[in-house]
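ESCALATION

Customer reports they have been waiting on this structure for their group meeting. Please prioritize. Original submission:
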Amino acid sequence: MEKTLGKKIKEYRLKRGMTQEEMADKLLSKKSTVSEYENDKIDIKISVLREIAKILGVSLSHFLCESDEYIDDEVMQMAMALKQIKSRELRKAAIKQVMILAEME
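Update from on-call: job pushed to the front of the queue and completed.
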């Protein structure tokens, strides 16, 4: 069974050790609104979903994918760190280094 959008939001929020109230504060919203999102009671605007993804440190695609595949936190952290590298050449070099390390195992 595939997870609903609300369940995915709740899962990532809990993994981050964040309460509904803390998320609501970051969203400039109410705790009850976060609860309604997580329980699939109300539709979420894409702009709000983007903000939720940013707050939780995941890509928007994590919420939009139909698949229930899970990318572990370390892989996600690596992707987010690589995304922060502005220079395309440096990003490619970092990816090559990771690939070399992966072959060592």
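Sent to customer with the following note: The chain has a mean pLDDT of 87.
Escalation resolved.
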